[in-house]
Amino acid sequence: TALEVTLTSPRWKRPKDADPAVAAEWQRFREALRVHELGHETIALQGADAIDDRLDTGLTAPTCDEAREAADKRATRVFDRYSSQSRRYDRDTDHGLTQGTGLK
Q1: Which of 29, 42, 78, 84 is the most exposed place for a label (fewest CB within 10 A)?
Q2: What does R_g of the chain's alpha carbons equal in angstroms?
């Protein structure tokens, strides 16, 4: 299983006269957001490992097409389970707000 993770975060072009407190708050927010997004990445990596595990065990079929279809069904079930975990993670953290992703 190949997995490519891209974390995208907002950027702020800090003006030279920016209030240091605002700049510090921005840095705090970005770090909290990074931590939250790394939680999603961890879930995705666990999902990819689980797909590998499911495909490594007893997959047999009379034809290549049927084997491919069976593998796809197994992988999709695992993907759906880990997608649900990611959505639950967002619910549990209020999309990161409980981890400090709100700006003050």
Answers
A1: 84
A2: 20
Neighbours of 40 (CB within 10 A): 16
CB 101 within 8 A of CB 95: yes
What is the rounded distance in angstroms from the CA atom of residue 44 to the CA atom of residue 23? 31
In Å, how far are 47, 66, 86 from 33, measured between CA atoms? 21, 43, 15
The H-assigned helical ranges of 3-63 are 20-55
Alpha-carbon gap, residue 8 to 20, rounded angstroms = 24
| CA angle (103 as vertex; 38, 101 as ends), nearest 5 | 20
